[in-house]
Amino acid sequence: MAAVLIERLAEVALVRLNRPERLNAVNRDLRRELPEALARVNADAQVRAVVIAGAGERVFCAGQDLEEGARLGVEDAERWAEELHAMHAAVRALDKPSVAAIVGAAAGAGFQIALHCDLRVAHPEARIGQPEVRTGVGSILGTSFMMWHLPFGLNAELSLMGELISGERAERIGLVNRLVPREKVLGAALGLARELATRPPNAIRLTKQRMRELTQAAFDDILVAARTYQRRAFESGEPQRLMPELLAELEKRSKT
User: Fold this and answer.
1) Helices marked H in 44-122 — which ranges?
2) Active-site entry in 68, 83, 132, 171
3) How far apart are CA 131 and CA 79, in angstroms?
4) Domains with residue ranges and CATH for the chain
5) Known catalytic membership, residue 183
6) What is the pLDDT of residues 30-80, one digit of tens each?
7) Backbone angles phi, psi at 103, to 5 degrees
8) Mapping DSSP to helix (H, G, I), strand (E, B) and coil, where does residue 241 land?
9) Distance CA 8, CA 85 (A)
10) Which of 72, 74, 79, 78 is nearest to 227 (CA)?
11) Fewer CB atoms near the end CB (10 Å): N or C, the chain?
């Protein structure tokens, strides 16, 4: 089964993270397929805007797949960081406006995908944030990306506490652009994308190119930091210990 699906809705491409049985969590298949899917969408002249959503009705993306993460070791850390960085680079590379439709939760790597979209739509009860410190890997990518969205103190709170905040609070502090009832999130995101699709495409492309230029040097540096710090994280042994514990806890909850 494909980890990413593309559906054409006239001038809008709906790109779905398609691992609903794993809460659309990010694994190697998704890290590889999302850049390929977005490259196809970007090359399609008939597509004027993109919506990224999660498959199913439960969640946008639960973050890193802990089943995969529990198997990672020191020798995997740098490759893992590089694949995540490449996945985020693919969202940034879109020349068409992009909207994230956040239903349920957008955590960790999923939250980061949403951050790289131009706009985000969520519902008040959504859960959004950076729980990486709880898995032992450290919030390297997320903390770096949030520097473009949040004051330092709020960034520190989300990065160090590792707690998910509500969609209502996320909208209040500027992480979410539109807040609607849960059942209307996808429709609102598609409506926003259709509105963006009416803007002159060359002006949109040029504006997005300039926006990338303003942050590209920092984005490139983030890859260097991710390689370095995530290797140190795995050398400490914390991720290898904590990820299996968290996975076991989540599996226990799912059976109760």
Assistant:
1) 66-69, 77-92, 109-116
2) 132
3) 21
4) 4-197 (3.90.226.10)
5) no
6) 999 999 999 999 999 999 999 999 999 899 999 999 999 989 999 999 999
7) -115, 135
8) helix
9) 26
10) 78
11) C
